[in-house]
Task: inverse folding
């Protein structure tokens, strides 16, 4: 009753103002409802977030696992069906262009004969020997302070195409420096993959 | 009106995930790029004999038998197998003057393949180099090597040491492959089909609920070819 009566009682100006107010109110309401829709329905981020968080954890885990840098420029280690996993230890990397100890370059490949004790026929690579001696010295001292014994193990990360001769030179040098246990880093592969892929 | 304001306020108090999302969205591609999807493993090996480092802890065998001293040498025309000082004569259809176990496909020039592969690597063509290397590796008679090793193993069941050597030019991958072939006994004693050979799994013995693969010659020693 009152609603119907009021317009009659107002002047034209007042009437227009009222209409405007109603329009505004409507607009506000419609805007408000739109906002509500947007929040609830259109994009549900929760599931996406779940995936992302799981992915993040998974990736962070695998990021920390990699103890040995086994692929890179001029370096691709051979494949093998081994079951053993690498441990964190000293590495000698032999790529197609350089020899590195703990990821620090010490020699070029191929090794010049002036770099070897005894010239071309020699096995000992002088720079590599010096570096290994330094590192072993430090590790021995550390081991002594820790009350443990120095373990003469080294992982050899070598490119699949390097010459056998170079490999023996590196291992001989390491042997001379006092390292006696060796591990070759390889890419783990299924046995069935070793034979079939190339035959096709 | 006051009610409306309250309702609006509580909506805003919801956790603002935008910054966190930004971080996650940036972190994930970054980590995905850095992840290496290759699983790295290791192969144990004993030092070359000529090293003068402290002796490695090889178990001394207290048998009266002379050590077998099994040696497999990888050359560009096949494997030389030697034991107790004697070199195994060429087997099967292999040429008289060649190695003990010749190539599976004698028409392949492994030496040339290796040379070309290294050339390709040097020119920066890694794909081609890898392909040629693979071809070279496939030309070897790995199955024949396994069959021979099994024969030897039958006569010397206790022996696990194998000396591996190679010609100076042989790629490292061949040596690792020899170790792979020599590591475990397979389901059958000998194979006459390459596909069956590579598809075979290691022979296992179940001990305390664990499957333990049976070793063939799993104690490799690297030696240097003269």
Result:
């Amino acid at each position: 009753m009152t609603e119907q009566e009021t317009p009659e009682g107002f002047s034209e100006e007042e009437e227009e103002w009222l209409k405007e107010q109603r329009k505004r109110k409507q607009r506000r309401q419609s805007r408000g409802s739109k906002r509500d829709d947007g929040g609830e329905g259109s994009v549900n981020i929760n599931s996406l977030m779940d995936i992302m968080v799981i992915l993040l954890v998974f990736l962070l885990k695998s990021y920390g696992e990699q103890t040995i840098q086994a692929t890179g420029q001029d370096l691709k280690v051979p494949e093998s069906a081994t079951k053993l996993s690498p441990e964190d230890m000293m590495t000698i990397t032999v790529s197609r262009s350089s020899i590195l100890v703990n990821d620090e370059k010490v020699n070029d490949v191929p090794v010049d004969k002036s770099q070897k004790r005894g010239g071309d026929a020699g096995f000992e690579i002088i720079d590599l020997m010096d570096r290994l001696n330094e590192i072993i010295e430090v590790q021995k001292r550390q081991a002594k302070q820790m009350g443990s014994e120095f373990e003469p193990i080294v992982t050899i990360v070598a490119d699949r195409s390097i010459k056998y001769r170079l490999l023996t030179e590196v291992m001989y040098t390491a042997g001379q420096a006092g390292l006696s246990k060796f591990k070759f880093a390889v890419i783990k592969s299924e046995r069935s993959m070793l034979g079939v892929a190339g035959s096709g | 009106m006051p009610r409306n304001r309250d309702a609006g306020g509580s909506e805003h108090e919801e956790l603002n995930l935008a910054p966190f999302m930004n971080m996650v969205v940036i972190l994930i591609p970054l980590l995905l790029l850095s992840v290496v999807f290759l699983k790295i493993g290791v192969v144990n090996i004993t030092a070359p004999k000529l090293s003068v480092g402290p002796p490695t802890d090889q178990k001394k065998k207290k048998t009266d038998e002379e050590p077998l001293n099994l040696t497999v040498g990888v050359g560009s025309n096949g494997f030389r197998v030697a034991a107790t000082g004697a070199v195994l004569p060429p087997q099967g259809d292999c040429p008289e003057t060649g190695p003990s176990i010749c190539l599976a496909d004698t028409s392949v020039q492994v030496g040339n393949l290796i040379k070309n592969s290294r050339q390709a690597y040097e020119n920066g063509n890694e794909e081609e180099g890898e392909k040629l290397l693979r071809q070279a590796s496939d030309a070897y008679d790995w199955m024949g090597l396994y069959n021979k090793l099994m024969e030897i193993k039958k006569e010397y069941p206790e022996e696990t040491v194998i000396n591996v050597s190679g010609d100076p030019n042989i790629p490292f991958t061949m040596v690792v492959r020899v170790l792979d072939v020599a590591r475990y006994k397979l389901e059958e004693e000998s194979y006459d089909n390459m596909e069956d050979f590579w598809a075979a799994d290691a022979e296992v013995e179940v001990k305390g609920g664990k499957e333990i693969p049976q070793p063939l010659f799993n104690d490799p020693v690297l030696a240097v070819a003269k």
Notes: Chain A touches chain B through 67 residues (CB under 8 Å). Residues 69-192 of chain A form one domain. The first helix of chain A runs from residue 2 to 9. Chain A has two domains: 1-65, 69-192.
